[in-house]
Amino acid sequence: MKQSPLADRMRPRTFDEVCGQTHLVGKNGILRRLVENNRIPNMIFYGPPGTGKTTVANIIAESSGMQLYRLNATTATLADVKSVIDSTDNMFSDAGTLLYLDEIQYFNKKQQQSLLEFTENGKIILIASTTENPYFCVYNALLSRSSVFEFKSVTPDDCVPTLRRALGILNEDFGEKKQADDKTLRAIAACCGGDVRMSIGALENSYYISGDTITDDTVSSLLPGIVGHFDRDGDVHYDYLSCLQKSIRGSDPDAAVFYLAKILANGDLLSACRRLMVIASEDIGCAYPLAAAITYACVESAKQLGLPEAAIPLANATVMLATAPKSNTAYAAYNAAVSDASSGLGVTVPEHLQSPLFRGYLYPHDYECDYVKQDYLPADILKKGANYYKFGSNKTEQAAKAYFDFIHANGGKPKTKE
User: Fold this and answer.
1) Is the pLDDT of residue 224 over 60?
2) pLDDT tens digits, one per residue of 242-263
3) Do 79 and 112 contact (CB within 8 A), yes or no?
4) DSSP label of 5
5) 296-315 average pLDDT score
6) Residue 266 has what pLDDT?
7) DSSP E strand stretches across 114-157
8) Cis check: omega of the bond before 308, within 30 degrees of 0
9) Cβ–Cβ under 8 Å, residues 226 and 200
10) CA distances (Å), origin 409, targets 114, 183, 382, 387, 412
11) What is the DSSP letter of 308?
12) Crossing angle between the packed helical segments 196-209 and 156-174, to the nearest 10 degrees
């Protein structure tokens, strides 16, 4: 009789059995502590595939006694969600209902908005999972009502005990005594880039084609395609993204294009797109304001084209950003402002900037150069003498500074009415 996949048979049933994710479900993991204290909020799980998101949702439902329903946003509709809600009205469950919605990034904004009604009225607890950054793909209102938990790639060392257990199960299934040392098991896990499910599948395939011992040669002959899509160390892919940004920041178009090629060879189009858009505003910024618009156009073209053609507009954006003038003045200004805002400054804003009912606001367009001096910052920040933005030395910002100085010197007089 055909057995279910080994990864499914090995799926953990308690937090102690989960591979990795100790920051969430270890003895002092924050998610584990919430569940053990019977506090289960709406949650969003994000992280790479095969890192335990679905497994942890199953464990939460089992340990809390909640009725679990699973939907995948790639195929589900709002009608499916409503069907789950209707079923909760027809059943008696003191513990409540947990809806696990996988790949929530495939629900559009309207569909995600509709989930709010069901989560706010308490009919269901929602656990949504995604492999994408939720701050990009999840509707803000839903995000603000959920606790976000990041699932990290499982390190090869953390994966070895799970693969050792899998090997034991395979030997029991087939009455064999095949062996593999930790080095080989670690190599399998590394080739699969922290995806536990894929690692188990790779071990299973290696088992079938090996002799009494599963060797490195067996693994390397079986997994060349996987090696091409996932890094061996777990962090290399993120290192490529860092190298891409630093190469562009350092005005090296050759290195920048090389790292773009490495990222796209791994098939990660979205990470490349997002990083380029960040770079356009963080590192080029006010020195060439059009860079953000050009990069956005290239990114949208890439998404429409898909790989491999997506590389063409992304290469254009990469070279443009690497050869453009650089400035981080806007980014630095924001960070400085955040520091004051987070320290509690600026709670009371100037009255003349509030409602039209308050008098005292001066309308700049009534004055020469469309400028008139007045206070815009809260009084406590003015008293501190805050100066967040400082003009960069590049041509564009110096031109802006010249205009800025001109209007401050020549503006402020009421315009003559003709």
Assistant:
1) no
2) 899 999 999 999 999 999 998 8
3) no
4) P
5) 92
6) 73
7) 125-130, 147-150
8) yes
9) no
10) 54, 72, 21, 19, 8
11) T
12) 40
